[in-house]
Design a protein that fits this description.
303 residues; mainly alpha; DNA polymerase, domain 1; hpI Integrase, Chain A; three-stranded antiparallel β-sheet; 15 helices
Length: 303
């Protein structure tokens, strides 16, 4: 089992480009499954559809959330698919297991005032200020996943044609336009802070974003940076890097972008994944109502 897990994690990291965060969760899920195997006195290659259903029932009895159960089953689907491809097992017993229906949550996003305050917290006189500004610009301006941001090389950015080559989930590539604000922030960071960071580590890495020691910045490092920034604000209660991606999509759709274009920019393989962003904020909804309904327009004229 340990050998299988090691090989599987190596495959996910090198060939599927999974983030460190996902790899940690998957390892937890596999070790959890291994405990079930030991309890049931079964080997990995002895699991059939009936055993897979028993494991699903076992997860439900533990009162786990639908999201957690879905992740664990998805992990095992991918795991057994990998084992099957290597002829370690004869079939994938989790392929036909139905995932629990999850409650669709509206993604959290920032309003314009909140985004403005977030930018104001960045001290450009600080040694790492230019780097932090470039990170925020890339997450909000390009809608990148944090893992995608961490894996960017300088050569992935074409400053002549103003596009960025992004490698997403499953190593799928997409081109995303880079706006003027973002381009300027990244160029300033490369020209100044990044050079000093490279001198600290004495390395020749082409990874774009580096930590304070000059090493590759991790997803956890970016979360820490955002947490420190958020502690300086009064408008925002909490933040996650993914909220900037949610904000990117929401602001595009609220300002008239078509959903297919947003799907492509986000790198979603299914349109249904993008459709969750078609909600509109209360402010936007009120604006549409006030500008469109005849009685509402009359009220505006009277005022």
């Amino acid at each position: 089992m340990e050998h299988y897990i090691f090989m599987f994690k190596k495959y996910l990291a090198s060939e599927r480009n999974f983030s460190d965060h996902t790899l940690i969760n998957y390892e937890v899920d596999l070790r959890d499954f291994n405990e079930f195997l030991e309890y049931a006195e079964l080997q990995v290659n002895e699991i059939d559809y009936q055993n897979a259903r028993k494991y699903l029932a076992f997860l439900h009895r533990r009162s786990l959330s639908k999201t957690t159960i879905s992740r664990k089953i998805s992990c095992l689907r991918t795991y057994y698919k990998y084992l099957e491809s290597k002829d370690f097992v004869d079939n994938n017993p989790f392929q036909m297991i139905s995932l629990p229906k999850k409650n669709k949550k509206i993604p959290q996003f920032f309003y314009n005032k909140e985004i403005e305050e977030l930018y104001k917290t960045i001290d450009l006189n600080d040694f790492l200020g230019e780097r932090n500004l470039a990170i925020i610009e890339m997450l909000y301006g390009l809608g990148l996943r944090v893992s995608e941001l961490c894996n960017l090389d300088i050569s992935d950015i074409s400053f002549d044609t103003n596009v960025v080559l992004v490698r997403g989930k499953g190593n799928k590539e997409r081109l995303v336009p880079i706006n003027t604000y973002c381009k300027e922030a990244v160029l300033n960071y490369i020209s100044n802070t990044r050079k000093d960071l490279l001198m600290k580590s004495k390395s020749n890495t082409y990874i774009l974003f580096l930590n304070h020691r000059g090493k590759k910045l991790t997803t956890r490092g970016i979360r820490d940076i955002l947490t420190r920034l958020i502690n300086k604000t009064s408008q925002i209660a909490n933040i996650s890097p993914h909220m900037l991606r949610h904000t990117f999509a929401t602001h595009l759709l609220n300002n008239g972008a078509d959903i297919r274009s947003v799907q492509e920019l986000l790198g979603h393989s299914q349109l249904s994944t993008t459709q969750i962003y078609t909600h509109v904020s209360k402010d936007q909804l009120r604006k549409v109502y006030m500008e469109s309904h005849p009685h509402a327009k009359e009220s505006l004229n009277e005022n």
